[in-house]
Design a protein that fits this description.
Layout: H1 22-43, H2 47-53, H3 58-80, E1 86-92, E2 99-106, E3 109-116, E4 122-127, E5 135-140, E6 143-144, H4 146-162, E7 168-174, E8 186-188, E9 191-194, H5 196-204, H6 213-223
Parallel strand pairs: 3-7, 7-9
Antiparallel strand pairs: 1-2, 2-3, 4-5, 5-6, 8-9
Helix pairs in contact: 1-2, 1-3, 3-5
Protein name: NERD domain-containing protein
Region (Disordered): 1-37
Organism: Paenarthrobacter ureafaciens
């Protein structure tokens, strides 16, 4: 074991934090290679030219966009990491092909963070009333993206099953969205919807609490492996 691999002796965080966006980046490269292979097979000796002139398919490109979003948010979270705050990136959900983009551990609790690189303005639409059940929908522009909130809630529940005695909060962090100059952040069904700078501010304010950041970080890292 090299000195860089040796576990620290000062009680600092030693668990592997992972690489933000790594699984999305691998999936993008896999899909890109498969698309290019199909073009080469179709066009024979003109395959190289076909690859050079063809635009990427949208389903393939979306994985690249997602990876970039996770990478950018991961870099910001890494810049916050210190003795009072720890982060994990791209964690595999046991028994599933899905993953959790980012997990932040603060003295006040755990944040389960899903990064999205969407265009449009995130808004909360509330329906129902006295005679009808209250319904909250997340809109991005005109698109109903409420399923994103459902996904974060599911991830929060999965992490809570592992650390039931620690407060856990979910967050949807939109990179490059059309946020207003004043306000904009909101919460729906317990999930915070915000942007990277706002998220960083919220996390750095989570300084009061009884969570053992080092032990919790290592416990979650051992349960939720790097994807």
């Amino acid at each position: 074991m090299s000195p860089a691999q040796e576990p620290p002796q000062d009680g600092s965080i030693s668990a592997e934090s992972g690489v933000a966006g790594s699984s999305a980046r691998r999936e993008y490269e896999r899909r890109k290679a498969k698309d290019e292979e199909k073009l080469r097979e179709k066009w024979g000796r003109f395959g190289g030219l076909a690859v050079a002139l063809s635009e990427e398919r949208q389903p393939t490109k979306s994985w690249d966009r997602g990876a970039i979003g996770e990478e950018r948010l991961g870099a910001r979270l890494n810049a916050l990491a210190a003795d009072g705050l720890a982060v994990l990136h791209d964690r595999r959900i046991p028994g599933s092909k899905a993953n959790i983009d980012h997990i932040a551990i603060t003295p006040a609790g755990i944040w389960v963070i899903d990064a999205k690189r969407y265009k449009g303005r995130p808004e909360l639409k509330i329906g129902g009333g006295i005679l009808r059940p209250r319904v909250e929908k997340l809109l991005i522009g005109r698109r109903d993206c409420t399923k994103l909130v459902d996904g974060v809630i599911k991830q929060v529940d999965i992490v809570r099953d592992h650390v039931a005695d620690v407060p856990i909060t979910g967050a949807l962090c939109f990179i490059e969205a059309d946020w207003p100059l004043i306000g904009g952040a909101f919460a729906t069904r317990g999930v915070h919807v915000l942007w990277p700078k706002r998220l960083a501010k919220v996390l750095t304010e989570q300084t009061t609490g009884e969570v053992d950041v080092v032990r919790t970080h290592e416990s979650i890292a051992s349960r939720f492996k790097s994807a």
